[in-house]
Amino acid sequence: MTTLDRRVQVLFDEELYGRLVAEAREERISIGAFIRDAVDERLDRRRADVQAALHRLWASADEVPQPAEDWEDIKDDPLDRPVLRDNS
């Protein structure tokens, strides 16, 4: 079991806190465990999104070589590329 050794204070309004209590109760876990699970899911989804973007980048590069672009134009946000955007 993981040792929990960091504390974070998060403030919620009454309505959102009530929803948290209800969901945690329904799953029969503590509110803290519910929030940790939600954070894990969000981080995992973010990681999967980045991995998928990189996969699309490499697949596109393999299919159609792109002309070299000026480094100054792309260095600030290398993942904000047309080839990475979901065009569906």
Automatic annotation (TrEMBL):
<feature type="compositionally biased region" description="Basic and acidic residues">
    <location>
        <begin position="76"/>
        <end position="88"/>
    </location>
</feature>
<feature type="domain" description="Ribbon-helix-helix protein CopG">
    <location>
        <begin position="7"/>
        <end position="45"/>
    </location>
</feature>
<dbReference type="GO" id="GO:0006355">
    <property type="term" value="P:regulation of DNA-templated transcription"/>
</dbReference>
<dbReference type="InterPro" id="IPR002145">
    <property type="entry name" value="CopG"/>
</dbReference>
<protein>
    <submittedName>
        <fullName>Ribbon-helix-helix protein, CopG family</fullName>
    </submittedName>
</protein>
<dbReference type="Pfam" id="PF01402">
    <property type="entry name" value="RHH_1"/>
</dbReference>
<feature type="region of interest" description="Disordered">
    <location>
        <begin position="64"/>
        <end position="88"/>
    </location>
</feature>
